[in-house]
Amino acid sequence: MINLVDYKNERQYKTVFFETFGCQMNKLDAELSLGLLQEDGYSIVDKVEEADVILYNTCSVRQHAEDKVYSHLGALRTLKKKHPDVIIGVLGCMAQKDAQSIFKRMPHVDLVCGTRMFTRLPELLLKIRNHGNHVLAVDEDEIVDVKRIAAYRPNVYQAFVTVMRGCDNYCSYCIVPYVRGREVSRTIADVEREVLELVSNGCREITLLGQNINSYGKSLPGNITLGDLLIELNGIEKLERLRFVTSHPKDMSRDLIRTMSQLDKACEYLHMPAQSGSDRILKKMHRGYTAGYYRELIQYARDLMPTIKVAGDFIVGFPGETEEDFQETVCLMEDIRFQNSFIFKYSTRTGTKAAELTDDVPDEIKKKRNTTLLDLQKKISLEENKKLIGRKLQVLVEGASKSDPNKLSGRTRQNNIVVFKGQPALVGTLVDITINEATDLTLFGTI
Ligand code: 5AD
Ligand code: SF4
């Protein structure tokens, strides 16, 4: 155990460079980690050359994401030689997965900190400072319990809140259950406490996060569901909007869709990955539903919430995917008319079930299928967005627009980005915007 007095006195490493890869949960873990480090006296710098501590929060979902981190780490060899006191750390999914082998491959790395240990960062960094390098912290039984320090939040009006971690689904291609562990849900009271604090600090929109959010509550006593959590949070005064991601079609209940449609704060938005439109491939993916079931679920949601928008994920080039299989995916995309889709080329992950199959779709075909889906999605997004021209939509103003700092930007309940002219004082409020122009990614309008 570290003596707290020594800890405070010996703290010398004051600046931190932090880069994060991967999903929204990683981004939130980064925000929470930086909150802890700032509370501990660190300031954030945006150049590695200025940092005493360099941390990468990593993703393992595809090989490409890992290659990027290893190449960043390799590039730090010279810096570490020149400045041996600089601490280099790998956090997150790749740390959990590759553990000790990261030190073998990159001996200049000092810290490998898994997906459940980031709450101990200040303590771990001190350990390296006092006792030398190569600290490995990848305990699988650790429960993540972190006090959110609202003062360090980058966006006051919109926040993500993790309600469950891990995944028990074991889709055949996916590494997440191995690096994020079994599903663990936070209690409703715990989540509510965090949301209340965020709201009292000005937050108006909350997105609940979970790798497999429809399984929220399964690890808790008393048949708690995500619907129960939504009902509870919907009662919070001054909170305007609630979203949740990511939904699994197999676990998405009609009850939950009905509950969404009945709660005024629950937004008409679903992120529900389909992954493929071919039943043969869905079966090989161990997804537990058919394309027909997916279509019915969306139809049910649209019957209850006609304005609902759906975002999807797709994997192209899964082992054995034929042209016919792929055409069924094209067909599903055309039928559902997603608001946007994240499209990935299949990447073999060692240790998963699908890694036992031959990765037999050549890369050129994967690329071609990827481009075909991207182009189709772009066309659908543009057509759907154009349908909104002339409509008046409620927008939560988030801040200055990234593309034009003289304008403001915000989101609709359906998660469309809207850019418009307005006073900075409107930031954090809800305004009605009449849409008069649309691209595939952005709506433009006037108050
Ligand atoms: N290869 C390609 N894409 C993958 N995803 C998950 N695992 C893999 C993999 N091995 C995609 C899925 C998931 C998203 C987060 O990443 O579409 O929904
Ligand atoms: Fe991975 Fe499937 Fe779990 Fe999503 S539901 S995190 S794709 S195993």
TrEMBL record:
<dbReference type="GO" id="GO:0035597">
    <property type="term" value="F:tRNA-2-methylthio-N(6)-dimethylallyladenosine(37) synthase activity"/>
</dbReference>
<dbReference type="GO" id="GO:0046872">
    <property type="term" value="F:metal ion binding"/>
</dbReference>
<dbReference type="InterPro" id="IPR038135">
    <property type="entry name" value="Methylthiotransferase_N_sf"/>
</dbReference>
<feature type="binding site">
    <location>
        <position position="59"/>
    </location>
    <ligand>
        <name>[4Fe-4S] cluster 1</name>
    </ligand>
</feature>
<keyword id="KW-0411">Iron-sulfur</keyword>
<keyword id="KW-0963">Cytoplasm</keyword>
<dbReference type="Pfam" id="PF00919">
    <property type="entry name" value="UPF0004"/>
</dbReference>
<dbReference type="InterPro" id="IPR020612">
    <property type="entry name" value="Methylthiotransferase_CS"/>
</dbReference>
<feature type="domain" description="Radical SAM core">
    <location>
        <begin position="153"/>
        <end position="383"/>
    </location>
</feature>
<dbReference type="Pfam" id="PF04055">
    <property type="entry name" value="Radical_SAM"/>
</dbReference>
<keyword id="KW-0808">Transferase</keyword>
<comment type="similarity">
    <text>Belongs to the methylthiotransferase family. MiaB subfamily.</text>
</comment>
<keyword id="KW-0949">S-adenosyl-L-methionine</keyword>
<feature type="binding site">
    <location>
        <position position="23"/>
    </location>
    <ligand>
        <name>[4Fe-4S] cluster 1</name>
    </ligand>
</feature>
<feature type="domain" description="MTTase N-terminal">
    <location>
        <begin position="14"/>
        <end position="130"/>
    </location>
</feature>
<dbReference type="GO" id="GO:0005829">
    <property type="term" value="C:cytosol"/>
</dbReference>
<dbReference type="Pfam" id="PF01938">
    <property type="entry name" value="TRAM"/>
</dbReference>
<feature type="binding site">
    <location>
        <position position="167"/>
    </location>
    <ligand>
        <name>[4Fe-4S] cluster 2</name>
    </ligand>
</feature>
<feature type="binding site">
    <location>
        <position position="93"/>
    </location>
    <ligand>
        <name>[4Fe-4S] cluster 1</name>
    </ligand>
</feature>
<dbReference type="InterPro" id="IPR023404">
    <property type="entry name" value="rSAM_horseshoe"/>
</dbReference>
<dbReference type="InterPro" id="IPR007197">
    <property type="entry name" value="rSAM"/>
</dbReference>
<keyword id="KW-0819">tRNA processing</keyword>
<feature type="binding site">
    <location>
        <position position="171"/>
    </location>
    <ligand>
        <name>[4Fe-4S] cluster 2</name>
    </ligand>
</feature>
<keyword id="KW-0004">4Fe-4S</keyword>
<dbReference type="InterPro" id="IPR013848">
    <property type="entry name" value="Methylthiotransferase_N"/>
</dbReference>
<dbReference type="InterPro" id="IPR006638">
    <property type="entry name" value="Elp3/MiaA/NifB-like_rSAM"/>
</dbReference>
<dbReference type="InterPro" id="IPR006463">
    <property type="entry name" value="MiaB_methiolase"/>
</dbReference>
<comment type="function">
    <text>Catalyzes the methylthiolation of N6-(dimethylallyl)adenosine (i(6)A), leading to the formation of 2-methylthio-N6-(dimethylallyl)adenosine (ms(2)i(6)A) at position 37 in tRNAs that read codons beginning with uridine.</text>
</comment>
<dbReference type="InterPro" id="IPR002792">
    <property type="entry name" value="TRAM_dom"/>
</dbReference>
<feature type="domain" description="TRAM">
    <location>
        <begin position="386"/>
        <end position="447"/>
    </location>
</feature>
<keyword id="KW-0408">Iron</keyword>
<dbReference type="InterPro" id="IPR058240">
    <property type="entry name" value="rSAM_sf"/>
</dbReference>
<dbReference type="GO" id="GO:0051539">
    <property type="term" value="F:4 iron, 4 sulfur cluster binding"/>
</dbReference>
<keyword id="KW-0479">Metal-binding</keyword>
<feature type="binding site">
    <location>
        <position position="174"/>
    </location>
    <ligand>
        <name>[4Fe-4S] cluster 2</name>
    </ligand>
</feature>
<dbReference type="InterPro" id="IPR005839">
    <property type="entry name" value="Methylthiotransferase"/>
</dbReference>
<comment type="subunit">
    <text>Monomer.</text>
</comment>
<protein>
    <recommendedName>
        <fullName>tRNA-2-methylthio-N(6)-dimethylallyladenosine synthase</fullName>
        <ecNumber>2.8.4.3</ecNumber>
    </recommendedName>
</protein>
